[in-house]
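Example (one chain per record):
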Amino acid sequence: MFEHMMDGFSAAFSLANLASLLLGSFVGVVVGILPGLGPMVGMVVLLPFTFSFTPDIALSLLLGVFCGGYFGGPSRRCSCVPRGAVFPGHQF
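Predicted structure:
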């Protein structure tokens, strides 16, 4: 049982999976910041590219886009500063 768990951990933490997860997270944050787009749109756009990848790399990429998109969405709203304020709630 433990050898199967170690095989799974070694596959999950391989360099290719971590690189696709990092790339997917970056793309997801960019897609999440853009108005009108969200994580689902980012996943749909990247879905045709994943057909040439192995299943574990493709799922890592799509998981990165999904999580990064939900992280990038609120950053757009939090960075909006009201006119005339240096910090939100404080007048210039």
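Caption: The first helix runs from residue 2 to 12.
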